[in-house]
Amino acid sequence: MDKDVGGLQVLRDGVWHTVPNSPHILLINIADYMEIMSNGIFKSPVHRAVTNAEKERISVAMFHGLDPEKDIEPAADLLLNEEQPARYKKLKAKEYMAGFYEHFCRGTRFIDSVKI
């Protein structure tokens, strides 16, 4: 993150909150795959970048995709008993990406539709 110029915001309880700047850190957004695989322990944040009219900022976004034929589901080790059942449906990575883009165009979150 740039120490002088902010711009990252996260949505919580319907309100956008600015993420504080800290010099020399690497910020990792874990995204929806990790929310599903962690069975909801880690949440995928709704976020946005905002511009600054007075200062420049450089952001680098990197994405990692899964093999389209791989299953996405909660990790078996996290499903310990009846009190901790799966909270997300099992689906192929390609099904998730198709649903993600369809919902993104509508301004909704596909991850909400795969919750059990």
Automatic annotation (TrEMBL):
Q: Which GO terms describe its molecular function?
A: metal ion binding
Q: Does the keyword Metal-binding apply?
A: yes
Record flagged with keyword Iron: yes
From what superkingdom does this record's organism come? Answer: Eukaryota
Q: Where is the Isopenicillin N synthase-like Fe(2+) 2OG dioxygenase domain?
A: 3-64
Q: Which keywords does UniProt give here?
A: Iron, Metal-binding
One Pfam family named in its UniProt record: 2OG-FeII_Oxy
This protein's name: Isopenicillin N synthase-like Fe(2+) 2OG dioxygenase domain-containing protein
| Native species | Arundo donax (Giant reed)
